[in-house]
C-alpha cells in the first residue's frame, strides 16, 4: 500500500524505502515461475499429492514472516502447500503483469489498491470474490481499496491499514528537553532547539518525489481540513486551488529549513539512515516503516505523534492521521486451483490471519477487531480510529493519469528546488487531475 503496502507512493513506490535494508539482509530477487514449479509432478500437485499454491508479493523484507504465517495455514490445511515468493518492489508490477497474462503467474497475487488495482481488474486477470469472502463490517475506506471502480465487484482482500505520522527519537527529545508537541508553537520550538544543537530536526528524502505527498499529509493534513475536505472536493464544491489547500502546500516549504541541507538531493534511504543513526530527530513516514526503523537501530526508543494544526487551519481542525488500505491479496483468473486459492484468500479475512499480520509483519491488520500488540502500531491504529482522515490523493485521485500523488510529488519537489511556489504546485495538481476526474455532484 503501501506497504504503496508499500502505502504507499506510495505508488506503492513507497515500498522502495525498504530496498536498502532488504539488500543488506541478503534478500535475493526470485525469478518468476509457475504455480507447479516447486517440486510438483503435475499441475500444482506435489510429489506428496498436495496442491501447491504460489503466492507472490513485493515485500521481500517480510519473507520470513509470511513463511511463518503460511506454515500455520498448512498445518490446518494438510493437503495444501503454500509457496511464497517475494520480488523487488520496483520490479514487481512488471513481473506480476507478465505472470498474470500467461501461465507463469501466481495463484494468489499481492495486488495494489484503489486506482492502481483498476488496470489489473480491467485485464480480467482476477476472479471476482463477491459471495466468496465477507467484508461486511469492514471500514468502508478499506473495502473501497479492493473493488473495481466500474463494476463495483470485490477483487481482493485488504491486507493492512496504513497510516502516516511523525516518528521521533525519544532519546534525543529527552536530551534536549523536548516533548511530543500538542500545539504548533511547541512543534516549531522543538525544531528550533534541535537545529540550534546541530541536530537535523526532520529527515526528509525529497530526491524520491513519491515520499513528498506523505510528508505533506504528515505536516499539513490538518491545514487543508483533513477528513472534512474529502467530500467537498469529490463533490466539486472545492478544488485543489482552495486557499486552505494552497496554504497546506506552503507549510511544507516553510518547514524546509528544518530538513536536511539540499533536501532534493537526499534519497529516502538516506533520510532513514539519518534517523536511524540518530543524526535526525524526526522522520515523517508510514506505519509500514516501523519494522524497518526498529530493525535499523534496535536500541533506539521510537515514539510517534500527530503534527498539530498549523496556524490558519479551518475551524474545528485538529491533528489527524491519514490512512488507506494496501497490500491486498487476490485470486488469479488463470490459477489451476481456484477453489484452494479462494479458500486461502478467504482465510486472510480471519482474525487469526489478522493477528499474525499485526504481530509478525508489523502492519496494522485490515481485519476488524484485531488489536496490534506492538504499542506503537496500536497507537497508530487508535489515532486513525479516533481522528483519522483518508490519504486523499491516494484513495480518490489515483483512478486516472496523471495521478494526484504523482502530480503533488513532482510539484513539491519543484517547490523545494525553488522553481515553483505553493500556488503553482496546487494549480498544476488541480489542472492535472481534472483531465480525468469528474465530481460526483
UniProtKB/TrEMBL annotation:
<dbReference type="Pfam" id="PF01547">
    <property type="entry name" value="SBP_bac_1"/>
</dbReference>
<keyword id="KW-0732">Signal</keyword>
<dbReference type="GO" id="GO:0030313">
    <property type="term" value="C:cell envelope"/>
</dbReference>
<comment type="similarity">
    <text>Belongs to the bacterial solute-binding protein 1 family.</text>
</comment>
<feature type="signal peptide">
    <location>
        <begin position="1"/>
        <end position="32"/>
    </location>
</feature>
<keyword id="KW-0813">Transport</keyword>
<dbReference type="InterPro" id="IPR006059">
    <property type="entry name" value="SBP"/>
</dbReference>
<dbReference type="InterPro" id="IPR006311">
    <property type="entry name" value="TAT_signal"/>
</dbReference>
<protein>
    <submittedName>
        <fullName>ABC transporter substrate-binding protein</fullName>
    </submittedName>
</protein>
<dbReference type="InterPro" id="IPR050490">
    <property type="entry name" value="Bact_solute-bd_prot1"/>
</dbReference>
